[in-house]
4-hydroxybenzoyl-CoA thioesterase
Amino acid sequence: MAAASTIYRDTVKPEWVDYNGHLRDAFYMLIYSLATDAFMDRIGLDDATRRTRHRTIYTLEAHVNFLREIKEGAQVRIDAQVLAHDAKRIHLYLEMFEVDAGEPVSASEQMLLHIDTSGGPKAARFDEDIAERIAAHCGDTREARYAGRVIGLPARSASASALSPAGSAPA
């Protein structure tokens, strides 16, 4: 199994920073989106191939975990690995690091769908050469520490459900 590999690098730009002085949440997703484009290039779905073969990838679902803040000017790298794939889909895991840091500042996982664009967008099997490159990026899922997380609040207890929306007990 392949380990995660660096597929993208960028710098946190001044226009990406919010009123708290750190990278605005929307720009984490922009960086991940650009990294996904780089991943597409890496597996052979670069611009020329997409145009020639009438193929592309759509993102069906994306989750972002914000692990610690990152500031303007920070150099970031995105490491990627494929957690799973089938004939038409890729479960891609991405981690964002300050360039030489050991711990990620953020993690994202995405479900990607291969699309045939020749007659209107429709799901399509990966061509054999692309499928082989995808398989080469499969990694040990134990390394994907932030994958598979579910968002939600814990179930409310009977005493908590008696609280009013303002957070105080009813009179």
